[in-house]
Amino acid sequence: GQLVESGGGLHQTGESLRLSCTASGFTYRGFPRNWFRQAPGKEREFVASLQPDGSANYADSLKGRLNISGDNDGREWYLQMNSLEPEDTAVYYCNRGRTWGQGTQVTVSS
Predict the structure, then answer these.
(1) What sign does the CA torsion over 63, 13, 5, 79 have?
(2) Contact indicator for 36, 93 with CB cutoff of 8 Å
(3) Out of 27, 32, 39, 73, which residue is the most buried by the measure of CB atoms under 10 Å away?
Protein backbone atom coordinates (compact mmCIF):
# COMPACT_ATOMS: atom_id res chain seq x y z
CA GLY A 1 0.00 0.00 0.00
CA GLN A 2 0.87 3.64 -0.33
CA LEU A 3 -0.02 6.70 1.72
CA VAL A 4 0.13 10.30 0.53
CA GLU A 5 -0.33 13.30 2.81
CA SER A 6 -1.41 16.76 1.78
CA GLY A 7 -2.45 20.01 3.41
CA GLY A 8 0.72 21.20 5.09
CA GLY A 9 2.21 24.63 4.69
CA LEU A 10 2.91 27.85 6.50
CA HIS A 11 0.44 29.02 9.11
CA GLN A 12 0.18 31.78 11.68
CA THR A 13 -0.27 31.17 15.38
CA GLY A 14 -3.92 30.64 16.20
CA GLU A 15 -4.93 29.42 12.78
CA SER A 16 -6.34 26.00 11.94
CA LEU A 17 -5.23 23.41 9.45
CA ARG A 18 -6.60 20.25 7.92
CA LEU A 19 -4.29 17.52 6.75
CA SER A 20 -5.41 14.74 4.44
CA CYS A 21 -4.06 11.24 3.90
CA THR A 22 -4.99 9.19 0.88
CA ALA A 23 -4.40 5.45 0.88
CA SER A 24 -4.10 3.18 -2.12
CA GLY A 25 -3.24 -0.45 -2.65
CA PHE A 26 -4.41 -1.73 0.73
CA THR A 27 -6.36 -4.97 0.69
CA TYR A 28 -6.88 -5.07 4.46
CA ARG A 29 -8.47 -2.02 6.03
CA GLY A 30 -8.71 -3.21 9.62
CA PHE A 31 -5.72 -1.29 10.90
CA PRO A 32 -6.15 2.00 12.71
CA ARG A 33 -5.52 5.14 10.68
CA ASN A 34 -2.93 7.25 12.42
CA TRP A 35 -1.17 10.58 12.44
CA PHE A 36 2.31 11.15 13.84
CA ARG A 37 4.63 14.13 13.73
CA GLN A 38 8.33 14.81 14.05
CA ALA A 39 9.63 18.19 15.07
CA PRO A 40 13.21 19.25 14.29
CA GLY A 41 15.64 17.48 16.60
CA LYS A 42 12.92 15.41 18.27
CA GLU A 43 11.60 11.88 18.09
CA ARG A 44 8.55 11.06 16.04
CA GLU A 45 5.50 11.24 18.27
CA PHE A 46 1.94 9.99 18.15
CA VAL A 47 -0.73 12.58 17.39
CA ALA A 48 -4.04 10.85 16.73
CA SER A 49 -5.58 7.55 15.74
CA LEU A 50 -8.88 6.59 14.14
CA GLN A 51 -9.88 3.08 15.08
CA PRO A 52 -11.79 0.72 12.77
CA ASP A 53 -14.88 1.09 14.99
CA GLY A 54 -14.79 4.86 14.44
CA SER A 55 -13.47 5.80 17.85
CA ALA A 56 -10.56 8.21 18.14
CA ASN A 57 -7.51 8.53 20.35
CA TYR A 58 -5.45 11.66 20.79
CA ALA A 59 -2.11 12.57 22.31
CA ASP A 60 -2.80 13.93 25.77
CA SER A 61 -0.77 17.06 25.13
CA LEU A 62 -2.83 17.90 22.06
CA LYS A 63 -6.26 16.77 23.16
CA GLY A 64 -8.85 19.48 22.71
CA ARG A 65 -7.23 20.95 19.63
CA LEU A 66 -7.54 17.94 17.36
CA ASN A 67 -10.16 16.10 15.41
CA ILE A 68 -9.40 13.00 13.37
CA SER A 69 -11.92 11.73 10.86
CA GLY A 70 -12.07 9.49 7.85
CA ASP A 71 -14.25 8.14 5.10
CA ASN A 72 -16.19 4.92 5.41
CA ASP A 73 -14.09 3.16 2.77
CA GLY A 74 -10.92 3.57 4.77
CA ARG A 75 -9.15 5.24 1.88
CA GLU A 76 -8.87 8.72 3.32
CA TRP A 77 -8.47 10.27 6.72
CA TYR A 78 -8.01 13.77 7.98
CA LEU A 79 -6.53 15.68 10.86
CA GLN A 80 -8.04 18.99 11.90
CA MET A 81 -5.80 20.96 14.25
CA ASN A 82 -6.97 24.21 15.79
CA SER A 83 -5.27 27.04 17.67
CA LEU A 84 -1.92 26.33 16.07
CA GLU A 85 1.23 27.12 18.03
CA PRO A 86 4.84 27.44 16.88
CA GLU A 87 5.48 24.19 18.80
CA ASP A 88 3.25 22.43 16.27
CA THR A 89 5.90 22.98 13.61
CA ALA A 90 6.83 19.50 12.41
CA VAL A 91 6.63 17.04 9.58
CA TYR A 92 3.28 15.27 9.88
CA TYR A 93 3.03 11.65 8.78
CA CYS A 94 0.06 9.41 8.25
CA ASN A 95 0.46 5.75 9.05
CA ARG A 96 -1.42 2.52 8.71
CA GLY A 97 0.14 -0.72 9.87
CA ARG A 98 3.73 -0.69 8.72
CA THR A 99 3.15 1.81 5.94
CA TRP A 100 4.10 5.46 6.28
CA GLY A 101 3.51 8.43 4.06
CA GLN A 102 6.33 10.70 2.97
CA GLY A 103 5.23 13.42 5.36
CA THR A 104 3.97 16.95 4.93
CA GLN A 105 5.68 19.95 6.47
CA VAL A 106 3.68 22.19 8.77
CA THR A 107 5.29 25.43 9.88
CA VAL A 108 3.62 27.74 12.37
CA SER A 109 5.04 31.22 12.76
CA SER A 110 4.54 33.39 15.82
Answers:
(1) positive
(2) yes
(3) 32
Chain-centre distance for alpha carbon 56: 12
Q: What is the DSSP string of the chain?
A: -EEEEE--EEEETT--EEEEEEEES-S---S-EEEEEE-TTS--EEEEEE-TTS-EEE-TTTTTSEEEEE-TTSSEEEEEE-S--GGG-EEEEEEETTEE---EEEEEE-
76 backbone dihedrals φ, ψ, rounded to 5°: -135, 145
φ/ψ of 85, rounded to 5, equals -125, 155
pLDDT tens column, 40-78: 999 999 999 999 999 999 999 998 999 999 998 889 999
